[in-house]
């Protein structure tokens, strides 16, 4: 018998696996539902799980024993090749055969591969044979995708296969078809994503599938709409070409791992829909090995939903918190469910790349979230050792959110902020080191706060002044009040109070005359990874104010 969640597992994880499901044969045959106290358990017999592949990519699903307990798969163990990882097989080397790399605009581009290359095929084939065999004894999965950029190889061979400047599907599908024929015991997957978004023109072998990215279907509480119908049409197009359909969905704000992201109710809607349209597997992309707030809850509840899409989310949330947080469980469950209800009521999507002000729609304002934070701090002091440790980790993460809420609301008390920064700095003891997917560290964030807010004078004569743009503004950045709203910006990312301008030859702004002003400061952000660069020139300003 396999009980999933609640820290209890009565099944051996040493049984031989068939390489497909990620759980042992004995688990597949004997798993049953037991839910006497509404704690988080896997529902239904595993023979009737709603999806054959189930994974939440979160820290709690890294350890093999944890994956077994929650009946989850793991990309590190259940895939021979996963995603944009061909670089692990074919190393970038200036002495390498040039044919392995893409030809873009007539020139070699070693940031992308040529999927018509015999050298690339031979490298992948050799890797499979050496590490996974020919598939006669055990089967493995291989997801083969181009690198994560828009470049498409247009060499003679790829063009002959059908490639064009924005579609790499023909060459990629031809490579997978060849590998699938050579290894009929293994399963091969393409990715419906980026340059391989378009399905192949002909039906693929039975052991070829697709992992469809749900990136274009926003995490919205509004279940219908054109985006969903477009997604359904895409899935149907791929079903006509591939026998195995998986979905790659997203369960974190990848710009902010620490702020609460109440995604469970929306994910239940989506998982139900995936089942309805014939999806056989789901990969829910989260924070991976990095800490994210409430990841334990998310992993447990999503594991249950991936086995039974109709499980009661509210009961699962309450059961998880009461079991793992006996002191603070009621407060935590009420807060989390309240945030989720606010998302549904507000009818706004959860953005997977978003600043703190998007979270304010469900967290409430400074005072409301502050009450939750204070209650959390109180619970840390009275909980038992194990619960106190987990609550302390959550308090560290919520200290970041308090700092951002305070900054966003223009309500920065330097003394209080210093305490929150000290609490956040303690995250290194618990492995809380990263804030975002892009690699922003807690240490760098703290330095930005100290440099840009704590150690600077806050006098601003332009506070709340109205500005007028004389040149076009970018979509989503039409509000110039961000420049004069007295909210401090931080140089650690474009979400931290910046106006992005990329149109035309420059940006011109008309501002009111402030007679007492003697100096005008303008800050610029440089983020090479996001292609945000400093201005190359400046125009003379009218008036007598200094500009720097």
Which class do the helix and strand fractions yield?
alpha/beta
Rg calculated over all Cα atoms: 26 Å
Strand percentage, roughly? 5-15%
Treating each run of at least 4 consecutive H or I residues as one helix, how many helices?
Answer: 16
The mean pLDDT is 86
Helix content: 25-40%
Distance between the termini: 69 Å
Order of helices and strands: HEHHEEEHEHHEEHEHEHHHHHHHHEEEE
The overall strand count is 13
In the predicted model, the low-confidence regions spanning at least 5 consecutive residues are: 1-39, 542-548
Please describe the biggest sheet, giving its number of strands, its sense, and whether it closes into a barrel: 7 strands, parallel
Strand order of the largest sheet: 1-9-8-7-6-5-2
What does this structure look like?
- With 548 residues, the protein is of the alpha/beta class.
- Helix content is 36%, strand content 10%.
- The protein has a 7-stranded parallel beta sheet. A two-stranded antiparallel sheet has the order 3-4. A two-stranded antiparallel ribbon has the order 10-11.
- Helix 10 packs antiparallel against helix 11 (329-346) and helix 14 (385-408) crosses helix 15 (414-425).
- It is globular, with a radius of gyration of 26 Å.
- The termini are far apart.
Highlighted features:
disordered C terminus, 7-stranded parallel β-sheet, two-stranded antiparallel ribbon, disordered N terminus, about 550 residues, single chain, about 10% strand, alpha/beta, globular, 16 helices
């Amino acid at each position: 018998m396999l009980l999933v969640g609640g820290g209890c597992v009565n099944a051996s994880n040493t049984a031989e696996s068939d390489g497909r499901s990620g759980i042992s044969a004995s688990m597949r045959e004997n798993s049953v539902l037991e839910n006497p106290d509404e704690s988080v358990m896997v529902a239904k017999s595993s023979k009737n799980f709603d999806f054959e592949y189930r994974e939440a990519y979160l820290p709690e699903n890294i350890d093999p024993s944890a994956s077994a307990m929650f009946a989850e798969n793991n990309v590190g163990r259940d895939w021979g090749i996963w995603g944009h990882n061909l670089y692990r097989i074919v190393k970038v080397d200036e002495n390498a055969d040039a044919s392995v790399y893409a030809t873009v605009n007539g020139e070699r581009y070693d940031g992308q591969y040529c999927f018509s290359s015999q050298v690339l095929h031979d490298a992948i084939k050799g890797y499979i044979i050496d590490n996974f065999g020919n598939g006669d004894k055990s089967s493995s999965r291989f997801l083969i995708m181009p690198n994560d950029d828009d470049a498409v190889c247009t060499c003679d061979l790829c063009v002959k296969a059908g490639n064009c400047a924005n579609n790499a599907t023909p060459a990629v599908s031809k490579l997978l078809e060849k590998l699938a024929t050579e290894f009929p015991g293994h399963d091969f997957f393409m990715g419906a994503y980026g340059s391989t978004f378009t399905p192949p023109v002909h039906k693929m072998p039975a052991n070829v599938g697709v992992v469809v990215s749900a990136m274009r279907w926003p995490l919205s509480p509004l279940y219908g709409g054109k985006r969903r119908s477009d997604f359904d049409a895409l899935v149907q197009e791929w079903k006509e070409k591939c026998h195995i359909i998986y979905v790659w969905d997203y369960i974190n704000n990848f710009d902010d791992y620490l702020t609460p992201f109440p995604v469970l109710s929306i994910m239940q809607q989506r998982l139900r829909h995936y089942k309805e349209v014939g999806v056989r597997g789901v990969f829910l992309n989260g924070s991976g090995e990095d800490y994210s707030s409430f990841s334990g809850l998310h992993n447990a509840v999503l594991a249950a939903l991936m086995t039974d899409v109709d499980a009661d989310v509210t009961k699962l949330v309450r059961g998880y918190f009461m079991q793992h947080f006996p002191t603070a469980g009621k407060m935590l469950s009420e807060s989390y469910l309240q945030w989720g209800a606010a998302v549904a009521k507000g009818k706004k999507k959860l953005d997977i790349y978003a600043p703190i002000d998007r979270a304010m729609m469900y967290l409430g304002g400074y005072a409301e979230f502050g009450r939750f934070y204070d209650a959390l701090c109180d619970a840390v002091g009275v909980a038992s050792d194990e619960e106190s440790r987990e609550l302390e980790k959550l308090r560290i993460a919520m200290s970041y959110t308090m700092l951002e809420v305070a900054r966003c609301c223009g309500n920065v008390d330097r003394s209080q902020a210093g305490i929150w920064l000290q609490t956040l700095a303690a995250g290194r003891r618990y492995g809380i080191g990263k804030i975002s997917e892009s690699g922003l560290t807690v240490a760098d964030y703290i330095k930005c706060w100290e440099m840009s807010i704590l150690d600077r004078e806050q006098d601003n004569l332009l506070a709340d002044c109205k500005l007028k743009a004389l040149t076009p503004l970018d979509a989503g950045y039409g509000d110039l009040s961000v420049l004069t709203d007295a909210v401090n910006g931080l140089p650690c990312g474009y979400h931290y109070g910046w106006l992005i301008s990329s149109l035309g030859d420059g940006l011109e702004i008309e501002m009111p005359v402030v007679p007492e002003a003697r100096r005008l400061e303008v800050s610029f952000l440089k983020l090479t990874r996001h292609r945000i660069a400093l201005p190359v020139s400046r125009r003379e300003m009218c008036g007598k104010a200094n500009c720097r």
